[in-house]
Amino acid sequence: MRILIVEDETRLARSLKTLLERKGFLVDLASDGAAGAEYADTGIYDLLILDVMMPGLNGYELARHLRRRHSAVPILMLTARSDLADRIEGLNAGADYYLTKPFEIGELLACIRALLRRQGGQVDQLRFGNTALDLDAAVLCCGEKSLRLSAREFDVMRLLMQAGGGNIPKEVILTRVWGFDSSAVENNVEVYVGFLRKKLASLGSNVTIAAVRRVGYHLEVAQG
């Protein structure tokens, strides 16, 4: 899953990025509200963490901007402004949760997990054919067998399962998993699809990843 942190305190932003990457998330940083809006408008993020007091757009303005564009991405505001009026303004602007600094790492991680679980109809796992993807543990399961996926394998598999058999173009997978400003190329997608095919086969899954030339990839359930 990909998270955008919009925070002008460089040390804090980098610390959060390191922490979340160790937990298996893909993390991008923006140091002001205007850059944050540009990143967030791509629609590739599963969660935004916003500071309030920033150059350019502040966190409230950025949240309002996104909600006006009908973005439903979860927003966690992380700020030193702890007055009740500030909390109310943040929630009214479109934030889903308001966490004040200083904060406990455990509480931050719990908030992130809760907001991510709230997305979509699936709470704990995605299923296709006889195979399930555990969203909390990043584990692919089939019957009694299971395999842990790398962060990128997990994100690619999650996109394919969420599509429910619909085709996803390579360029969409590339943007959603690697980011719009990444130097990765479509061959990276092909490599990770290859990894996932091997893991599905080793699990005895009846799910295959099919490729359609110039269209993209989709999941199929093998017949028989």
Short description:
With 224 residues, the protein is an alpha/beta fold.
Task: Characterize the structure shown.
With 224 residues, this protein is α/β, with parallel strands linked by helices. 42% of the residues lie in helices and 23% in strands. It has eight helices and eleven strands. The chain has helices at residues 10-22, 33-40, 59-68, 84-93, 105-117, 151-162, 170-178, 186-203; strands at residues 2-6, 26-30, 47-50, 75-79, 97-100, 125-128, 131-134, 139-142, 145-148, 207-212, 216-221. A five-stranded parallel sheet has the order 2-1-3-4-5, sandwiched between helices. β4, α4 (84-93) and β5 form a beta-alpha-beta unit. α7 packs across α8. The longest helix has 18 residues, at 186-203. It is elongated, with a radius of gyration of 19 Å. It starts with a strand and ends with a strand. The model has no long low-confidence stretch (mean pLDDT 87).
Key structural traits:
224 residues; alpha/beta; 5-stranded parallel beta sheet; 4-stranded antiparallel beta sheet
